[in-house]
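Translate sequence into structure tokens.
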Amino acid sequence: MGSALAVGPYRVDPPVVLAPMAGITNVAFRQLCREQGAGMYVCEMITSRALIEGNPKTRRMIAFGDREHPRSLQLYGVDPATVRKAVELIVDEDLADHIDLNFGCSVPKVTRRGGGSALPYKRWLFGQLVAEAVRAAAPAGLPVTVKMRTGIDDDHLTYLEAGRIAQDAGAAWVALHARTAAQRYSGTADWTAIAALTAALDIPVLGNGDIWEADDALRMMADTGCAGVVVGRGCLGRPWLFADLAAAFAGRADRVLPTLRDVARLMRRHAELLVAALGGDREGVVDFRKHVAWYLKGFPVGAELRRALAMAASLAELDDLLGALDGEEPFPTSTLGRPRGRTNAPGRVVLPAGWLRDRDDLAIPDGAELDDSGG
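Result follows.
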């Protein structure tokens, strides 16, 4: 089912893509997920201007593992000329094999500059940006894809027109998070929008939103006809979701239900990979802290031990604390199919002044290009 998905010369089998998540999908987390199952694993979003200016943090964020192929990079920008220069640099320095353009981010610091999920509303600017990226990537044969939301809010839906524009500009696929920017991560994703976009386009459409279990991915593809799925929050603290997805797409019924001992081993592996990636024991374990609550969700672990794990500062300290967990605890099946990560409330989308007045305006807001990368 759906195993024919490809982007450029790269086959994506099973048709599963790890969504870029700020502060999460670094080289360590991507390796951990790849150890569980196949698919495409995209690095954290980086900004075009920061890349061009040689921002050291941005350069560190686009590190890829030796066996990481294709190297998939997500790029943010608002100015087509700046995005073109960034893609040219990626090509010249051989920094990636695939470029995904971010039009899905809904955080205020992005949308107030006209970026992320605000940008497709400006249809000509959006089309120019995608076209410039595709043209700049063409000499190296790098496929360019687009990730977007359904629109700014229910009164300003853009996904069907934006999908057609992206297709005409040469995008290899379009991934749709089936929520508006105003929804953020609240409520439920509207999978009927994924079906409508799939019917409207000739290029592949990937669906994103509310894939908490492997069977959700199968159901999304069956219900919408999409060519693949993008998994975000569902894998937080659950990298084995990719093993479940591999089994599901292979037609197998087996699913991973790890004991707390198994989860502790994965936690240790994750921290160890972060230490290697960030170059220091303390740096890696401190970065790992944000994952603790996700890994332990639903397990009967006392508040004191949870707190201590979330304050660990070395692998040795982490080992001692993980050793205090009751390894025999079975997986809490009550958490299956439940949202993970951010579930914030809907809210007004912060936009540049006058942004909604003219859809055909090509003007780029002042300060649109961010000079750093990361959440």
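Note: The longest helix spans residues 260-278.
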